Amino acid sequence: MPLLARRVGRAKPSAIMVVAEKAKRLKSEGRDIISFSIGVPNFLPGDHVYAAAREALAKDSGQYGSNRGSDALLDAFLAHIAQIGLNGYERANIATGIGAKHVIFNLAEALLDEGDTICFATPYWTSYFDIAEIVNAKIDLLPCPPSQDYKMTPAQLDAALAKKPKVFLFNNPSNPTGMVYSKDEIAALADVVAKYPDTWVITDDIYNRMVFDGLGYHNFVHARPELRDRVIFIDSLSKTYGMPGWRVGFMAGPESVAKAVATMNSNHITNIPEVVTAAAIAALTGPQDVPTQKNAEFSAKRDQVLAMLAEIPGIVCPRPQGAFYVFPDVSCAFGKTHGPTGLKIGNDVDLCNALLEAKGVACVPGSAFGEPRALRISYTCPTPQLAPGLARFKQFFDELQ
Ligand SMILES: Cc1ncc(COP(=O)(O)O)c(C=O)c1O
User: Fold this and answer.
1) 77, 102, 104, 127: which to mutate for ligand 1, most atoms within 8 A of CB?
2) Confidence at residue 19, expressed as pLDDT on a 0 to 100 scale
3) Ligand 1 and 101: CB distance under 6 A
C-alpha cells in the first residue's frame, strides 16, 4: 500500500476533543455528566442573524464568491475593528477564512517555509503546535508558568526574538489561561517587537470582546502604530457571537499578507458561502446586546469558579480576566489517590480521567496546552450546571488521600 504523506503523521487529533468524546460517551450510557471541557460559547446568536441568513437563502445566487470575502463583509469587519481602535485599515488589508483556525493555518503556510522558526508561549492553544508541526516549522516555546501569571515577560520575548524567528504568535486573551495583558504590558512587549524587524507577529485575539474588570483590550499596533506593517490581527465570530459552527474568521494586516491568504483560499476553499456571509454581516453590524450580556455573565461565572478553587488547599490559580477559561495548577494532587474509587493520580491526564469517572465532571488536561501541571475549566456550561459541577470538583479534591 502506498504511504501517507509525512505531514499526516505530524498532525494529531485534538486532545481537547478526546476528553469531550469520552464525556459524550459516558453521557450516552446514562451517566450524569457536567462538561467543563469544550471551549464553545454555549449561546446562540441574535434572531437578526438567522433572519439575515434566511433572507440570503431566498436570494442565494449559488455562485462562487470572492476569495478574500465579499466587499460588504470586509466593510462590516473594518467597522467592527475600528470599534476597538484598529483604524486606518482598508479592504486590501483584510482576508477571511473558514474560522480563525483556517486563517491561522493559511498564515502558517503563507509565512513559514519548512524549517523556519515560530515562537509562542506555553500554555498555548493546542492547534498552534499542531499547525506548526504540519507545516514542518521549528517550534520555540516560551514557558510562562503560573508564577508569572502565565504571561510572557519582555525579557523572555527579547531572548526569543533575538534568535530571529520568522513568526512570533501571540494570543490575548489567552486560551487556555483566560489571562489578559494590560495596556502597559502590551506596550512593554511592543517595544521589544519593534527591535526585531525581520519577524512577523500574529496576534490571535479572537476573545478581544471578552475582557473583564474594565481592563480593556490592547494590541501591539495601539502601542506602536509603526508595527502595522508586520502585525497580523486575527478575529473570529465563533466566540463573540456564539457562532462557532458558522465558521467565519478574519485577519487584518499588511496588504501582502492579506493577498497571500486570499491566494491560499483560492486554492482550497474558494470563498465563504453567501448565506454565511449574510449572517456574519448581520452579527457584526447588528445589535450587540447578546455579546454584551454574555460578557457580564462570564465574568460572574469566572468569580464563582475562582471562589471554589480558593477553597482547595494547594491549588494555585492566577486570576483570569477574559475569555471563558480558568487554568488552575493542580499539581498538588499528583501522587495522591482518590479515596472512594482508589484511582491513582500520577499526572494531569489521570486527574481528568478520575474526575470524570468518579464525579462525572469533564475538564481538559493541561498537557493538551503544553502545561501538564494544570487543567482547563471552561465555564460556559448552562448556569444551573455550574454550581453542582464546581461542588463535585471540590468534593473530588476533598476525597484525595
Ligand atoms: C485562541 C484561539 N484561536 C483560534 C480559535 C479558533 O477559532 P475559530 O472557531 O474561529 O476557528 C480558537 C478556538 O477555540 C481559540 O481558542
Assistant:
1) 127
2) 76
3) yes
> Phi then psi for 283, rounded to 5 degrees?
-65, -45
Helix, strand, coil percent content, the chain, rounded in steps of 5: 45, 15, 40
pLDDT for residue 229 is more than 80:
yes
CATH code at 47-285: 3.40.640.10
Residue 120 one-letter amino acid: F
Q: Could you write out the three-class secondary structure of 223-255?
A: HCHHHHHCEEEEEECCCCCCCHHHCCEEEECCH
In the prediction, which pLDDT does 395 show? 98
Ligand 1 atom nearest to 236, measured from its CA: 10
Q: What is the CATH number of domain 6-44+290-398?
A: 3.90.1150.10
Alpha carbon of 206 to ligand 1 centroid (Å)? 7
How many other CB atoms are found less than 10 A from the CB of residue 5? 9
Model pLDDT for residues 324-374, shown as the tens digit of each residue: 999 999 999 999 999 999 999 999 999 999 999 999 999 999 999 999 999
The pLDDT of residue 309: 98
Residue 329 Cα, ligand 1 centroid: separation in angstroms? 23
Task: Tell how far the Cα of 40 is from the centroid of ligand 1, in angstroms.
Answer: 10
281: which residues sit within 8 A by CB, 6+ positions away? 52, 72, 73, 76
Atom of ligand 1 nearest to the CA of 248: 10
Q: What is the Cα–Cα distance from 272 to 63, expressed in whole angstroms?
A: 11
Mean pLDDT (the chain, rounded): 95
Span(s) in the chain for CATH 3.90.1150.10 = 6-44+290-398
Kindly indicate the confidence band of residue 15, based on its pLDDT and cuts at 50, 70 and 90. Answer: low
Q: Is 238 in the pocket of ligand 1 (CB under 6 A)?
A: yes
- Out of 101, 128, 205, 376, mutate this one to test ligand 1's pocket (max ligand atoms within 8 Å of CB): namely 101
Q: Which atom of ligand 1 is nearest to the CA of 39?
A: 14
